[in-house]
Amino acid sequence: MPKPRERGWPAAPEALPAVAVDNHTHLDAIAPYAQGVRDRLRVAEARRRGHEVPAGADDMDLVEVPIRVPSVADVVADAAAVGVTRMVQVGCDLDAVRWTDDLLNETAGTAVGGALLGAVAIHPNEAPLHGLGPDAAEDRLEIGPDGLLPTLEPRHATSLDDAIAQVAAVVRANPRIRAIGETGMDLFRTGPRGVEIQRASFRAHVALAKELDLALQIHDRDAHQEVIDVLLADGAPERTVFHCFSGDAEMARIAREQGWYLSFAGPVSFAANDDLRAALRVMPLDHVMVETDAPFLTPHPYRGRPNAPYLLPHTVRTVAKVSGMPLDEVCRVTSSTAQRVYGDW
Ligand SMILES: [Zn+2]
């Protein structure tokens, strides 16, 4: 069994030669994720040392494992130390939308606030749960192609229309929120009944981004054609970004033609993803951005360990290598693209 330290936070990478922007991260999820990793490792370590730990125990005081649960200020400082001085915080369920709004308001005018802009939406995997209607109950839930039964949370008692209206109200009142996202479609987690609700939700978010002249951040999982169809039929917002782009060179050509932006996350560094690297080579660098999607999708060679914006340099270096551009040029161009898409920080 690996030592706990080896499953925790990776060491900080070498600092970038110029500043970079993480254009998609979930600060609300980083601390809970780290907490979860720490709890699991405490149990594993206690068992390794021969302690008896009841199944399901998640609060092990028997051993301490050295995994930090960082505050937002810690995350921002760690990122700045390696050149990642700005980021877009994405809140994509009703609780996270409020969390994002509060964070941006509470940090306004501080150094931490200066590093942050926001994006909010009802995620495609959330939309069907809101869309079940006022009598939503566990027995109406649908198991998705991923084989998992979703969990209903108190926030899902709000109807989808009301949830999207709440997103719109938050965006209108907060000038630091500059994107609608992540929205889109996800055929991996959603079964056929949910897909129609998901499509309707996506269309409503597209309309909102256009109405407010904001950027759109798209989540597309196993749904390339469905997402493209909606964008072409309804008309894509001026600044449309595929977050954690997962398509191939052919799809990148469509994006290039349409003037859409592709944001690359940790998977561009995974050995199996030649398609993604081919897509990156198709795109003009001024329509490419970089992101962590933290705490998920930790770049190679740290797959499976927690992620945070300070690990973005690994992805920036991969983009430089694949596109054959100097590293400082990639930092400069992707940063100015982020500024063009989301406005000034
Ligand atoms: Zn995300």
From TrEMBL:
<dbReference type="InterPro" id="IPR001130">
    <property type="entry name" value="TatD-like"/>
</dbReference>
<dbReference type="InterPro" id="IPR032466">
    <property type="entry name" value="Metal_Hydrolase"/>
</dbReference>
<protein>
    <submittedName>
        <fullName>TatD DNase family protein</fullName>
    </submittedName>
</protein>
<dbReference type="GO" id="GO:0005829">
    <property type="term" value="C:cytosol"/>
</dbReference>
<dbReference type="GO" id="GO:0016788">
    <property type="term" value="F:hydrolase activity, acting on ester bonds"/>
</dbReference>
<dbReference type="Pfam" id="PF01026">
    <property type="entry name" value="TatD_DNase"/>
</dbReference>
